[in-house]
Structures are given as structure tokens and as C-alpha cells.
């Protein structure tokens, strides 16, 4: 059984078909990138998987069970986490408090405002917080207020927040957007490290081809809501339909 199964997934916005009969499986341990031109439906697909959007038709199964009907936080508790979510960081709290909230929410359900007051009652949360901050290289900055972190470190903290729930599947929407070349290579290194250390399964939406080719086992190409190619990086690179649709004939 695949970890994630998308079955005939359609999302319409009024007359516009943003995802058009999308079918694919993701196996445990696979690292999948989704590419495609602007407006192809990539973010829509991610938002359907995290239950931020309701599909018009079709089904999404995780570990063999349909997740339609589940709330976004229930999906997180089942093991799907998304990084680079707008406003996943609480800017006025410290790096450590941000990781604690994520670890607490993963164990005890949707965020509640009295979480931090009771955090010492949960030693497992303290361990998870420390491990998470060590994994993303922010343990030394644990007492820094999140809004004072440099941009690249904020994005690291976002990855940490997503990892704190110990997901089975991590979704990343443009992890290197807005980063300098140095921050991009640090982020790629971080993703490589967590992928090796945690054996993580992930789906990545990204525009940067270097990032995609260095960290994916498999690439799905979306065009106008439809999957037009699904294969290894070299299969996709040599696919004529992809070159035509995605880059207007320019070689990848
Ligand atoms: N909430 C919405 N209401 C109406 N139309 C939407 C909504 N969200 C997305 N769309 C439309 O659905 C289509 C797919 O958009 P989506 O954001 O998923 O594409 P994308 O591949 O992620 O694009 P980009 O690379 O530019 O982020 C676009 O035509 C977009 O305008």
C-alpha cells in the first residue's frame, strides 16, 4: 500500500479547473517534486492534501484511509505536515517556544493558548523540542525571538516546526523562495540531511531546477491542472512534452 494515494482528484474554482483528474501514489520513503508553469495547480494540489481546500471530486487516501472529512489539524496528527506555511511562526515568541508549540500541538491536538503555561508537564515535548532544534541547527539560537532571526534561519525554523510533529509525509511549498544562493544551498543541505537522518517521505513544490534535480527521486509535471509526466529526473528532463509545455521548447 502506498503512503499517499490521489484518486481522480478534481478541484474547480467556478469555471476554472485547477486540478484535473489527478492520480498518483507516493510510496514510503519517496522524495517527489512537483513542477509546472505558473498557475499549473501545484499549490492547489498541496492545499488539497493538507485539507485546506475541499476537492470537487475524487479521493485522497493516507495510509490506506480516506482523509476527506478530516480537519487540517487531524491530518497533521495522522502524519502529514507542511512547511513554509504562511504564518507558521509566532514572531514574538522565542525559537524554543515556537518549536514547543509545534511539538505540543502534534501530541495534543489543535493549538490552544494555554499550551505554553503547561509545557513543563510534558517531558516528551521538551525532548522533541530539543531534538527538532538540533536537527535544523537552531539549538544555539533557542532563546532568540523568532522575528529577530535572519531570513534563512526563519525558514529553517519553519522546517523545524513542520518536523516537530514527526510527520510521515512532509509537504514543502517553495522552500527556497526568496533566498540568497548561500541560503538556498544551506536549505538544500538541511533537506538532504533530514531526508537521510529521518528517512523522510516528502513532496516538494519548487521552481529552482538545481534544487529539484539534487533532492528528488521522482518528478511530477503539472500543466493546466493535469499531470503530463511522472518519472525520474532524467526521464523528465528528456521528455519532449515537458520541454514543450513547461519551457516552450527550451532545454531543461
Ligand atoms: N482560491 C482560489 N480561487 C480561485 N481561483 C484560484 C484559487 N486558487 C488558485 N486558483 C486558480 O487555480 C489555478 C491554479 O493555481 P495554483 O496556485 O494552484 O497554481 P501554481 O501551479 O501553484 O502556480 P504558481 O507556480 O504561480 O504558484 C490558477 O489559475 C489560479 O488562478
UniProtKB/TrEMBL annotation:
Family statement: Belongs to the ABC transporter superfamily.
Upper taxonomic lineage: Archaea, Methanobacteriati, Methanobacteriota, Stenosarchaea group, Halobacteria
GO MF term list: ATP binding; ATP hydrolysis activity; L-isoleucine transmembrane transporter activity; L-phenylalanine transmembrane transporter activity; L-valine transmembrane transporter activity
Name this protein carries in UniProt: Probable branched-chain amino acid transport ATP-binding protein LivG
ABC transporter domain mapped to chain residues: 4-249
Cellular component GO terms, alphabetical: plasma membrane
Membrane as UniProt keyword: no
Magnesium recorded as keyword: no
A biological process term (GO) from this entry: L-isoleucine import across plasma membrane
Domain of life: Archaea
Protein role: Probable component of a branched-chain amino-acid transport system.
PROSITE patterns found in the cross-reference section: ABC_TRANSPORTER_2
Keywords: Amino-acid transport, ATP-binding, Nucleotide-binding, Transport
